[in-house]
C-alpha cells in the first residue's frame, strides 16, 4: 500500500499490548485547521484493510469539512477489533493518550462502533476528544443532525429533480436503519414519504416499525434495491454503489448517510449516464460534524441545526455547478471543496510580524 503517495500529512500506528489497542490515525490535511474526524471501532480482517479505510475516510473528512464551511482539516481513526467484546476502559484510555500525543493536530469524535460515553472515557486522557455526552457538556448524539443534513440534501435533490423540495408521495428505500438511518426514517415519514427499509440487525428494523408500522421491510439490500423506489438512501457502511447495482437501480436520486458510497470514482459517471442524481455523501452527511464542531464553542443545538440546514443550499450549488460544467455532482463537490482548501488554506501561511 502506497501510504506516502496517498497525499496524507501523517499516518500514525498505535499499539498498546497491555490493553489490546491496535489503531491507525490518519491525518489527511490540516490546511484549514486541525483535522477532525471520528473513531471507527471495527473488526477489520487485516491491518491493510484498516489502513485503507482510515486513508479513505480521512480524505473524505477533509472534503466534508471544507464543503461544510468549517475551519477544520480532515482526519480519521480506526481501532481494530470487535467493539462488542474488545472495547474496555483501558483500551479507550490508551487510545486517548495517542490522540493527546498528537498535540491537537487530530480531534476525535464518534463513528461506527463508538458512542458519546466512549468519548467521555477517551477524554479522560486527552483534551482533543469531542462529541461527548450531554452530561459532560458535549453535543450528545451527532446522528440526529447527521440525519437532518441528509434530509436537507435529499430535499434539495428532490427540488432539482422534480421541482419541489418535498419527498411526499415518493418512495424512499433506506438501507441501514441504525443511528442515522432510523432518524432519517422519522424525518421522511413526517414529510409524507413512503418507506421501505432493510438492516442486518432485525432489532433495528423492529424499532423503526414500532414507530412507523406502515414501513415496508426488505429481506436484504439486494431485495431492497430491486424494489420500485424513487430515492435510494444508503445509510450503512460504505461501498453501497458498484457497477452492478447502478446498472439496475430504479431510483432517480441517491442520497444517504453512509460514507464512501462509491466503490470507485467512476461510479459517479455511471450514475450520471443513467440519469440518476447523486448527492455526494460527504456533502449531505456533514450535519454530524457540524454538530461536533459546535461543541468546541459551547454547544447550542439550535445554532448547530441552523448551520446544518445550510446543507440544502450547498447541495443546490453543487447540482447547479455540475449541470453547468457537464460533470457529475461528485466531481463538482470535489472541485468546490478543493477550491476552498486552496484559497482559504493558503491564509495559514500568512503571518503578521510580531
TrEMBL record:
Active site: 76
MF GO annotations: nucleotide binding; oxidoreductase activity, acting on the CH-NH2 group of donors, NAD or NADP as acceptor
Positions that bind NAD(+): 176-181
Matches recorded under PROSITE patterns: GLFV_DEHYDROGENASE (PS00074)
Keywords tagged on the record: NAD, Nucleotide-binding, Oxidoreductase
A Gene Ontology biological process term: amino acid metabolic process
Limits of the Glutamate/phenylalanine/leucine/valine/L-tryptophan dehydrogenase C-terminal domain: 140-349
Keyword Transmembrane: no
Family as reported in the entry's similarity comment: Belongs to the Glu/Leu/Phe/Val dehydrogenases family.
Name recorded for this polypeptide: Valine dehydrogenase (NAD+)
Organism: Blastococcus aggregatus
Organism taxonomic ancestry: Bacteria, Bacillati, Actinomycetota, Actinomycetes, Geodermatophilales
